[in-house]
């Protein structure tokens, strides 16, 4: 049997110090005398193979979370890793070892989306530790395959840890988190990634956590990750994060001191070039060569687990043909994933749209025909995009309905043309098409140029973050005039919001006939939105984050305490709560019980068409800090009139909390489980028209 670590140690023992250090950079050069080819460690696969040409582009990560379906996410990640392997081997045949073309993928992002202003929140799986952990574990397993010693690709859990903005301060910011929040909110998804999914890579964050720079934190990398969780993969820095130690965090004085701190505390790979100073660090006595050996051995083990450097190849992976990339089967699956990611937030009966007798539909808004609003960031190149306009037009034409289009306004500017003499130069066109239509679809929101990573967006005024929750530019002003005009005609208005984060949608909730949260639904997303509007399927997406009423509900962005944040701790009333989403078909729940560590319940589709619903289980413990916490979920799809008996295992950890040392303790307060199709709070019950069943739990 091939012993990866023993073989890696033998290989490292043959390297000079300079050769070892060269392998600790993300641009690792070849060592020809040892038969080691060059390798670039940096690759991305957040929702498809990214930045390496054509690939299937699934909904953005926040949209995957909105499916509330880890099994689906596993299948999506399996498709991504199939395409990743196919592309890797094809590039190898061409001798192309460049960036974004390896097998080490720096995905998923399992940070907690604690504040809707954070620009990178759409890369995450939302605000809940349980949903993030379940979705993250599924994604990692789908990428890596079932055998840790024969990896399909290597996944990466990032950014470790306590990292969620502000983007503009990330290179110098200290995220101060108390023990309770650290262990019960920020770390559980990472623990699951390591101990359950066997993730191969962990990436440190830019910021400091409780005073220590994350990419050189003894507490995070040695005490917790390597010690408590027994992680045996490799750790990479975020890109150029190590130079922040001396340039911004001021915890070291020189580059040599910075690399010594990082490597000594368990960072093996440097995204960047600063680890070149490791040679000097050894010669100056700040690092030992044994510490260098440890890091390089970890890196060689990963390459061997991937079937490289003389390790056994997995023929099932090396034989995946290039034909799978962006194939018709994957496109169809992508469309299905997009359908399941859409969340219907309001419907006064306008949906499904009653097309009979309609002659014209107006599609209005800056995101109506936007490709980048389909994709989100960390994207690849989809060979086919279907925008909302294109999707609606295709389905409307099938029914003999003409589609009218108007941009209405730019996504964040006042005017489309710099030569315009008056503001809102596209608004009149929106009113023109509204007056001539029998229904209006408003397509508004954000895109990756407005919310995203510092340096990657055009939003330099906030480094990729949002300054608040209102729609940017004059979108709301334009939408209000369109709705006023439509109401004067007595025609329905459907608002479709493409954004990666929560917005202030009070105006839409009060005035639109239906509201759809589409997130960034992937390259086929416009077709999915159109199909929902025309009733081709019953929506099943659920919110993975809280939609607050306004900025006034938010604590200070820089405050990392979880007090009054997310549904678990928020004391106010949400506009649209976590876990909420509507469908077209009614479901019923009966016979709920808790026995032998599982919830058992009967679910019935009481509607007239096949549809799906998500059974959600929340735990409430008297005397604990949380309002309630999600602890179980199950997607149930049924034909009309059919029932199914569902069993949902409830982990024992649901009845426990972490103490300050990261050990689980049993909670002694009275415990109750709520089983239903939403949270048990009054707002969810009102919006959903459904009251979850309360089950008392003894012990």
How would you describe this structure to a colleague?
There is one protein chain. The protein is α/β, with parallel strands linked by helices. Among the domains are: 1-18 and 158-296, Alpha-Beta Barrel (TIM Barrel); 340-551, Rossmann fold (3-Layer(aba) Sandwich), CATH 3.40.50; 587-697, Immunoglobulin-like, CATH 2.60.40.10. It contains 22 helices and 23 strands. A six-stranded mixed β-sheet has the order 9-14-13-12-10-11, sandwiched between helices. It has a four-stranded antiparallel β-sheet with strand order 18-17-22-23, with no helix packed on it. Strands 3-5-8 form a three-stranded parallel β-sheet. The longest helix is centred in the first third of the chain and has 24 residues, at 70-93. The chain starts with a helix and ends with a strand.
